[in-house]
Amino acid sequence: MKKKSLLQELITLGLTLMVISVVIGGLVAFVYETTKEQIAMNNAVNADDLAVIMPGTETIEDFAGEFEANEVITEMYRAKSGDEVIGHVYKMTVNGYKPGLTILAGIDKDGNLVAAKVTQSSETPGLGALVAEEAFISQFTGKTTAADFQVVKGTVANENEIVAVSGATISSNAVASAINEAVKFHKQNILGEEVVEEKAPEATIETLLLTGDEMVEIEGEYQTFEVKTAGEVTGYIVITSHAGYYQDMPMTIAVGFDNATKKISNIVVLEQNETKGLGDVIEQEGFQQLFQGKDTQELTVEIYSGASESSKGAFKAVNQAILYYNDVLMQGGN
């Protein structure tokens, strides 16, 4: 038999290797195509995360495409054990002190929170990053969802309250806000419940901590009310607006003035569009307390819980009201 030349052997070997490569490549492509959906599901929420936020899950299926896009909820899945849906899993991405804070939350069939987990964070080490630690995030475990979660400092007084990480109120609020968004979506779209939005605060004698029996609106540069007691003007409520973080969406604040003491009785944020979990902390009672009992002279800005631009906008609105109170109302004008 005629011996093959070296060239012929090389050509034969090359063709053989090429055929093998094509076959293997085809097999890999086939396996990938048939399993890519499950691979994507497994990568989306890993087993360790599911063990925390939805124990007993065997498979998950994406149902985000059934709803309009949500700016906070980036992914959503049905969690199943066999054919039974045992709960729903939501992935949220929000801005904390820094962008890209990602939270997972598991909600059971009854609409209660199973648990939550921070899966990605660029928050400050030793401060905001601590929202991922058990001491903070475990506060959400097994919680009912009858009311929005509220971040507080110190000790809790109600079931829905979560103690903030010391020195990291922004990060703490961001996590709570993200979970609240998931709960709200779940109630509306999965449970079919009507979610009643919290009633906006009003400028009243009571909310401004004033004494009186009558409010009378008067004309002027700003919306203003005389507060009267037995017909005598004993205070004023002045409503002003100023931009906070968003220049095109100013906040509106009511400021109460007590004529007897010439001090601010209280402020109420009537309207704001500041960032959830960040600038919207100006609605908290702690922010109001920065103004209560202050003299009616221009106030120096105090940054509240790291919400710098929102704080500045609110102080500027209050200072506008103080100037109007001193230079117009207390001079007998309007």
Q: Strand sequence of the main sheet, in spatial order?
A: 1-2-3-4-5
DSSP strand content: 25-35%
Helical content (DSSP H or I, runs of 4+): 25-40%
Terminus-to-terminus distance? 118 Å
Function: Part of a membrane-bound complex that couples electron transfer with translocation of ions across the membrane.
Subcellular location: Cell membrane
GO biological process, one term: electron transport chain
Modified residues (FMN phosphoryl threonine): 169
Structure report:
The protein is built from 6 helices and 12 strands. With 334 residues, the chain is α+β, with helices and mostly antiparallel strands. A 5-stranded antiparallel beta sheet has the order 1-2-3-4-5, sandwiched between helices. Strands 8-9-10-11-12 form a 5-stranded antiparallel beta sheet. A hairpin with a 4-residue loop joins β4 (101-108) and β5.
